[in-house]
Amino acid sequence: MNDPIYITGKCHYASITEPNTKFEPVWSIQIEVDENNRSVIESAGLPISNKDDDRGDFVTIKRKVMRKDGTQRQGPIVKDSQNNSWDGKLIANGSTVNVKAVPFEWKYAGKSGVSADLAAVQVVDFIEYTSGADNDFEVVPGGYVTGNANQEEVPFAS
Question: Which residue among 12, 28, 38, 151 has its CA within the 20 to 30 Å range from the CA of 21?
């Protein structure tokens, strides 16, 4: 087994508590590449991407949910800054993380390269992800309130 590498940086699109299922299910995270982590990433041979957006240069670290033999893999270990187990909160873009990744070489369909298995993530500077659906509108005083709002229960008239 290859030795793990540790990458510290701002993250994007963190699917580490639940797998991303858009294509093949994977746990994944993207880390911005900067002057502090570039040498670790380049020396491991990991490909650096750039989509001309606010991420700049970044590297994607993944772990497939299913092994080749069809058995399910454990998700990456996720910890807070004090090494406590993560509480499952979703991590927003821009949070600072430490990532433990295990680089490996691969060959598939006549292509080859280097990827890294996402072993663990430590959240150092947490920004909580919110869907935006919770706060699209301001509260309107005196407006209609649905029956499932936080209201006191009215007892039946006897």
Answer: 38
Largest CA distance in the chain: 79
* Any domain includes 66: yes
> Is the residue at 70 inside a domain?
yes
**DSSP letters of the chain?**
-PPPEEEEEEEEEEEEEEEE-SSS-EEEEEEE--TTTHHHHHHHTPPPEE-SSTT-EEEEEEEESB-TTSPBPPPPEEE-TTSPBP--PPBPTT-EEEEEEEEEEEEETTEEEEEEEEEEEEEEE--B---SGGGSS---TT----TTSS-PPPPPP-
Calculate the average pLDDT of the chain.
Answer: 89
Domain presence at residue 140: no
What CATH number is attached to the domain comprising 17?
Answer: 2.40.50.140
Q: What is the pLDDT of residues 42-96, one digit of tens each?
A: 999 999 999 999 999 999 999 999 998 999 999 999 999 999 999 999 999 999 9
The residue with tokens 């490996």 is 104
